[in-house]
Each structure stands twice: as structure tokens, then as C-alpha cells.
Design brief:
By secondary structure, the protein is of the alpha+beta class. The chain has two domains: about 170 residues, 2-Layer Sandwich (Beta-Lactamase); about 50 residues. The longest helix is centred in the last third of the chain and has 62 residues. It is a single-pass type IV membrane protein. One of its GO terms (molecular function) is SNAP receptor activity. One of its GO terms (cellular component) is endoplasmic reticulum membrane. This is Longin domain-containing protein.
Length: about 220
Amino acid sequence: MPILTFIARVSDGMLLVASMESAGDYNDNLDTYKQQGKQIMKKLNQRSPGKCSIDSGAYAFHYLIEDGVCYLTLSDKNYPKRLVFLYLEDIHAGFIDELRRDHGDNWRDTVTTVARPYAFIKFDKYIQKKRKEYTDPSSSQNMSKLNNDLADIHNVMRQNIQEVLNRGEAIDRVSQISSNIADRSKEFKWGAKKLSLQAMYQKYGPLVAIALFVVLVIYFKFF
């Protein structure tokens, strides 16, 4: 079953909605999974795959990206993958419907500009309702959903949580190195320009001084 669900803005990873189950054996580690989920959100960008599954111990994160918004959930690893993505699609559809009711055609601008985390927390009620619907994958309702679903999920990327987090750290290091190289390049350019000016002064300085001396002599002699 879906244990926790996050909705976040992809551009900066800011959480818009957070919802989680309050009972179960996983509660001892729930804080760890919450932190992992937030880290995943922070590492997403516009080039991230639209759908992805990320293994983490006995559980797996699954996310769906639509319209610059990421819908992420954590479930048991043996929970049907097709069903968990149907759950995320339901969450996405319900979230957009609520945004349109509250903000009309400007809902995209609202999502892009909102500055307060958990600004749409009231949507948690809808998530809780959907989570109950998807609790038992063998229920007649969910079996019917699976039978009617024609989506191909075999090509959905599957990764390991450490690979995702470590790759993010590597990207951060590369970004820092690139920034340092750019700064040193600017310093080198300024140093090279300074040396060039010094060489020019040494080469032409004496000639300029002699020329000025001759001009002054002529000026005082004839004027």
C-alpha cells in the first residue's frame, strides 16, 4: 500500500503537500524514509525521467512528473508496480482538478510562484481517501483497475536509493569544481592582462619618456 505521499515542485524541490500513513511496522523507520523522499525531490530537475522507481530496503519509492510537479510515494517493494503508478496518476488528476477549482486557468502560475511549503496541505484529505482505495491490491476494485490499465510500465527506470543520492552528491561536487575553475580562469585572465600591460610598459615606456623629453626641450627652446 502507499505509505507516504509527497507532492513537490520540480524546479526547487519545495514540498507542496505531504501525506503519510500513521500506523504499521514501518513507523520505526518512517523518519528515515521521509528524509530520503525529500532528498529525492531535491535532486530532480527538468531532465529527470518522467517515471521512476527507486528501491530502498524492503520498500520502494515511485514517482511521476507532470507539468513541473512531482508526485512521489513509498510502498512495499512487492506492491504491484502498475497499481502504484495508477495511484500516482489518480493523485495527479485530483491535484490538478483542485487547483483548477481554486485558481482557474492560472493554476500553473500559482504552483510556480507559491513561496510557502505545504501550501496545498488541504489536499491531504483526497490523498488519504485514495490511499484507502489502494490499500489492498487484491480488492475487486483494484483488480479491475489493473485489468483495464493498458499502460506499459516495463520501461520505467528502476534505481537504488544510494545510487540516486550518491549521484546527486557527485553532481554537486562537479558543479563546485566547475565554479572553482571558472573563478580561477577569471583570475588567470586578469593576471595575464596585468603581465601584458607590464611588458608593454617595459618595452615602450623608455621610448615614450624620451619622446616627451624631446618635446619639452623643443618647447622651452623655441617658445
